[in-house]
Design goal:
422 residues; mainly alpha
């Protein structure tokens, strides 16, 4: 009976997820929304009854979804890319994350939520959704535009900083306190952990993948990749870090491999299946009654995400020397939250440190901002032209001088070695 119940649950999830995928594709909406809607429909909070007989097994499969999501993000991340993206992506990412964590915390305090809830809300709002942004840009045929390269660079930096945020929140959740000394100690320990296992991985992983690839067997390569992935996840768990951290690190190590494209092709079906289950599990935990009860916080937080991220990313890009149009396009493109927010919200629930209302609020805000993303990207260019007409000319002139100064400063630094040789 236990096996039959599991197959039944899996059949219900995948059949309905497949149906909603087709519908949302026809409506030209992100399929992630379809997965979440599937979870709401079959969940325990939707009449007449829950279609899922064993939520614990589904939650376990959802954890695999987190592993494959973070592993895939790691495959897209590369230390070489990190060095190439330049200062603009780093400055913009730090500006965005800092402002959104502060804004989320202040909103939580405004609603008289606990400090832990407020801190988790800040983390939930900090990171934009790589999956949703990349999909939206590709569907709008904008993925080859110059400003998109800066967005991708920002997402790479965010993915790295997201792991730091996740680890710090996990530490805060376990200790139950927010202490500067503890945060610094956690950061130091985390840095040491990442450096040690990355160095070990750099020495072992590429050589192992090259050796396995010689056999020209996709099955052998896939099994090896999965073994390394789950091995790193296990190591992270044993050292009291999240499995997401282990998955991301091993993915980033494999991103330097010559077999990267083949690995991505082999992992893609598994990632799509288990990430679908993960997003369905997000909908399973969503109680519509709580959303009605907390409609005002949902609306306020949604406005904070859109306006806050547009302002933070625009100003960050301007400070990094980008022109006004590019900066605004970047801000409008990053104005949403997604899969990482779900991971943080899920962690708060699993560790039983956040209030019951925080999870559905995070999901609701993510759903609304995900829905808005394609429209914000479409409106970015005409809206930037209108803003350009409103902004006083002396402010535009100041930023143009500032941009030219940074550009000339960069050119001087690049030519400095040549001058010394002469």
């Amino acid at each position: 009976m236990h096996v039959a119940a599991f197959i039944q649950d899996l059949a219900v999830i995948m059949l309905l997820a497949g149906l909603t995928t087709v519908i949302f594709h026809q409506l030209k909406q992100p399929v992630v929304l379809g997965y979440i809607l599937t979870g709401i429909i079959i969940g325990p909070y939707t009449p007449p009854f829950s279609f899922i007989s064993d939520p614990l097994i589904i939650n376990t499969l959802a954890e695999l979804g987190i592993v494959f999501l973070m592993f895939s993000l790691g495959l897209e991340f590369s230390f070489r890319k990190l060095f190439k993206i330049g200062l603009a992506a780093i400055v913009t990412s730090i500006a965005e994350i800092t402002l959104m964590i502060w804004l989320g915390y202040r909103i939580g305090i405004y609603f008289h939520w606990t400090k832990i809830d407020s801190i988790f809300l800040g983390g939930i709002l900090a990171i934009s959704s790589t999956t949703i942004i990349v999909k939206a840009l590709k569907e709008l045929h904008l993925d080859k535009q110059s400003f998109v390269q800066l967005i991708f660079g920002i997402l790479i930096v965010e993915d790295l900083l997201a792991i730091v945020i996740l680890t710090i929140l996990s530490s805060i959740a376990i200790s139950g306190t927010v202490n500067t000394h503890d945060v610094i100690f956690t950061m130091g320990k985390l840095s040491l952990f990442i450096i040690v296992i990355s160095l070990l991985g750099i020495m072992i992983v590429p050589r192992l993948l090259i050796y396995v690839a010689k056999f020209d067997s996709n099955e052998m390569l896939l099994v090896t990749v999965l073994g390394l992935c789950f091995g790193y996840c296990l190591l992270a768990i044993k050292l009291e870090y999240s499995l997401a951290l282990g998955a991301f690190i091993i993915g980033s190590l494999m991103a330097e491999s010559k077999e990267l494209k083949l690995i991505e092709q082999l992992i893609e079906p598994l990632r799509d299946m288990f990430s679908a289950i993960f997003f369905v599990s997000v909908g399973l935990l969503l109680d519509p009654k709580i959303l009605l009860q907390y409609a005002w916080p949902v609306l306020l937080i949604t406005l904070a995400v859109v306006i806050g991220k547009v302002i933070a990313c625009t100003l960050g890009s301007l400070l990094a020397g980008k022109d006004g149009r590019t900066s605004f396009l970047v801000g409008m493109g990053l104005a949403q939250i997604g899969e990482f927010s779900f991971i943080i919200a899920t962690m708060g629930v699993s560790l039983k440190v956040t209030s019951d209302f925080l999870y559905p609020i995070a999901v609701a805000v993510s759903v609304i901002t995900t829905f808005l993303t394609p429209y914000l990207i479409r409106l970015a260019d005409p809206f930037s032209r209108k803003i350009g007409k409103i902004i006083p000319s002396h402010i535009i002139y100041f930023f143009s001088l500032y941009t030219n100064w940074l550009h000339n400063l960069g050119n001087k630094k690049r030519h400095l070695p040549t001058q010394r040789k002469k």
